[in-house]
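Many introductory courses stop at the sequence. We go one step further.
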Amino acid sequence: VSDFDDHSVDLIDPAISVSKTGDELIKFGDEINYTIGFEDIGSGELGTCTGTDTILGDLGEFEAGVYRDFSYTPPADGSVDNTATIVCDVLGFDNQVEDSDSHSSQVVSPAIEVTKTGDSIAKVGDEISFTIGFSNIGSAALSNCTGFDTVLGDLGSFESGVTQNFSYTTSESDPSPLENTATITCEVDGFDNQVSDSDDHSVDLIDPAIEVTKSGEDVAKLGDEIIYTIGFENVGSGALGVCTGTDTVLGDLGEFEAGVSREFSYTPGEKDPNPLENTATITCDVAGFDNQVSDSDDHSVDLIDPAIAVTKSGVNVAKLGDEIIYTIGFENVGSGELGVCTGTDSVLGDLGEFEAGVSREFSYTPGEKDPNPLENTATITCDVAGFDNQVSDSDDHSVDLIAPAVELSKQCQPDPVQVGQDISWIITIENTGTGSLTCHLTDETADILENDIGLEPGESVDYDASRLVVLDDYPLISNTAEVSCDVDGFDNQLEDVATADCEVEVPGEEVCRTPGFWGTHGGTENPRASNLTQLVIDAGGPLSICGRDIDNTDVGNQESAIEAMCVSVRGLQQRQLARQLTAMALNCIASGGDADCSGTSVDGLFSAANTACEDANLNPVKLEGYIAQVDCFNNGGAWDADAGECFWDGSENCQDRDLTEFTSIFDGIHPFPGPAGSPKACRDAINNGIYVVPVP
């Protein structure tokens, strides 16, 4: 038999699965966040479940499928390993079921160290060099590191261990010391966090500066010494080295010390500009730097060249005893103000005070004791305002002192003079004084009227006049010349008078024959005739007529008296005058005179007419006058000079006088004068075209 009884046992296999998760990498100081829970993965009902953790400690109760969060802040960096364990009771059993899960976190400590170096001292305006970089001194990987500087601004990207150089030029607006901080910030790989560090740097900024001062006179005279005072002050920051100076006018000034001024001198000349601008420059080395600092100060001097121009004017010529008026003054022709101005004169003495541009008049009357020329000099002297100096100038003036005088003299010749002769007067005007003269001469007797005769001192001028002496002049010709002279440049006038007296003689008796007589008695055509004409020529000749010598009576010969007197004049007055003069010369010889009529009453007339006959261009009216006078004599008349005509006064005619009474030329001729000896020759001469005076 069997029996069986069955029985059923529910078999359970209780089991749980614990899960622990959390941050695998954290930064030191950050919390590690854990998530802990479990799943019921077995069979059977679970009772109370509690958990513990090797780091977190008691975790409290858990329910399957319900996860809880926990946090932990590690005290140091490094690896943090911990294990969570959950233990559950099995309902209906005394057993428990448990499970564990471990977790590991890495704790890192990110850190950087920034370094910034540079010049500790710099000049304002100089470039400062900074060196900036950083080192990763932590345990975290870094990336995207950038920098910023409180002065330089954005610095760009950096790498650990790699420094970079930066420059900055300081300015006057920068503070001193110039504090500046460089900051580098890096991202920490695996984290949202950043790590940063800073380093600051301080630069003492110096602003080296000097202030140069240059002083001196504001006004100076050319030729005076100018004193300049030049120096400087250190008005900046920073120590200075050697300081030297130069000047645009003075040149090299040598070395200077701050606060110690020095004096320099300069004497301006005519080539310097006005105003005299000049600039002093001092340059100093800056201690510890290659730089230099400099400053300048200019100075202007108004250069005055005080000068005056004195003028003195007056007449150039003055007469002794006349008042001379001088005009004296001056102009300020320089630069600079003048003070009191006074004048003196070498002749006038003290002139008193003057003002620029205002001339004054002074008078002086020269006397016999004054030198000639009268040289005198005016000098004006002026104080220069603001200076101890004086300026002066002079101007001289010369006056020719004249003592005008004129002397008139007159003489007549010949003395005595015969009726029928020409009388000549010589009148001389001489400037016997000093000063130029303009004279006016009158002499009614000599028929002289001359105006505007200019005579310089010591100069003289002669005037000649002549006329024929007539019987009415007997027994004395007396005439007076008068001269009046203006003194050039003056209102004065000088006068003088001169008289000349010449005795007049009545000449002895003379013989005269016409050209017709002498022309027909110049040959021996008739056996009883004598050549009277040739005898006279041989006795007193040859004759000089109109520039031609006559020594024969041959027909056809140009030097023949027959050809001269027996001629067809054909209206040519020179031939007529030559005809009459030939007869006059023969008459003069026959009267006991010479061939030129000297020793007779007509020598003056013959000389004047004969001279006129030689002039082919002489005025025909003048020739006619001589022809009439000579013909009058040859025909035995007397010439009335006032009436200009020939007349017979009833006295014995010279043609009626015997030719033998006055000469022995005709001794032995009988009968006398005999028949004409050349009437045919005279006719031939008229017609043959031969002329003693061949006037064209």
